[in-house]
Amino acid sequence: MNNVLLINRIIPSVDDERICDITFVIGDMNLQQVHDKIIKVIGSSEYMDLSNTEINYNGFTTRQKAKVIPEVLKNLIDNNLKVYGVYDIYS
């Protein structure tokens, strides 16, 4: 049996006010320093906070408006985190 992951298409400029559970897939999550850096970045972000974020084995999921995705992504990259994917799982 194949594992299938259905995701929603997100266009931040069109879906700007839609609230999404955005998952960011981050590289090297097995390293404690990457985990700590994610917590630091989330804590210092004007768009995210730890109360609406779940950190897991391959990245984190946060509940946000679609329009902030580009800013969150820029913040992660500016902090030298390896971002391998960004998606909203279909529910």
Describe the model.
It is a single chain. By secondary structure, the protein is of the alpha+beta class. The protein has one domain. It has two helices and five strands. It has helices spanning 32-44, 69-78, and strands at residues 7-8, 19-26, 53-56, 59-65, 83-89. The chain has a five-stranded antiparallel beta sheet, covered by helices on one side. The radius of gyration is 13 Å and the shape is globular. The protein starts with 6 loop residues before the first strand and ends with a strand. 18% of the residues are buried. The mean pLDDT is 90.
Q: What is the structure about, briefly put?
A:
By secondary structure, the chain is of the alpha+beta class. The chain has helices at 32-44, 69-78; strands at 7-8, 19-26, 53-56, 59-65, 83-89.
| Discrete helix count | 2
Q: SSE order in H/E notation?
A: EEHEEHE
Taking the sheet with the most strands, its summary is: 5 strands, antiparallel
Total strands: the figure is: 5
Helix-strand makeup class: alpha+beta
Q: How much of the residues is beta strand, in percent?
A: 25-35%
User: Looking at the structure, what is the overall shape?
Assistant: globular
How many discrete structural domains? 1
For the largest sheet, list the strands in their spatial order. Answer: 1-5-2-4-3
What's the average pLDDT? 90
- Rounded radius of gyration (Å): 13 Å
- Would you identify the regions where 5 or more consecutive residues have pLDDT less than 50? none
Distance between the termini: 20 Å
Helix content: 25-40%
